[in-house]
Amino acid sequence: MGYQTQNTLVGIEPGGNKIFAKPGGTLDLEAGAIAKFAGVDISGQLDPTTKYVAVGSALTLTLAAHFGKTMKLDTAAGSTATLPAATGSGAVYRFLVSVLATSNSHVIKVANATDVMRGMIFSVDDTSDNAVGFIAGATADTITLNRTTTGSVSLGEIIEIEDYAAGFFRVLGFITNTGSAATPFSATVS
Known about the structure:
- By secondary structure, the chain is an all-beta fold.
- It has one helix at about 65; strands at about 5, 10, 20, 35, 40, 50-55, 60, 70-75, 80, 90-95, 105-110, 115-125, 130-135, 140-145, 160-165, 170-175, 185.
- The strands form 4 sheets. The protein has a 7-stranded mixed sheet with strand order 6-8-10-15-16-12-13, with no helix packed on it. The protein has a 5-stranded mixed sheet with strand order 7-9-11-14-17, with no helix packed on it.
- The N and C termini lie far apart (about 55 Å).
């Protein structure tokens, strides 16, 4: 199948159904252009000025608006982030403690009673530098950073969550604790 081209690197397939950019070519979407992947609007993912998203007191994430972005746990009264349903999309969501909670907790949880978390979170004691890892149990669906034993002790704590299969999220995180470290994983979504 031939291509109608403006040059050898960028062009439009005959019939106008497909725009292509070959290696070395550049497809430059201007501000306001809409880009879709498999019908999902990913325009916001292409804007580097929207890499960080404030969770505020509560935020329900969506695949279209939040995959590949870093959500800031940014409220002293605690931030609660609810993940979209796990479908196996491969979407990665990162969470960064940018404000230490001083009341309540920072919480990351699944959207429904079916989804669970798999993976681990490593915690380092804020005074002794002793480290311990916690593995998500079979029913884990919530991560709670409680300001002491389970995180939200140091700025920069980070948790990465990937939608790797229908019903399953992979978790990898690094937090700090004060006092005796405890698992940040629990099952709270019913």
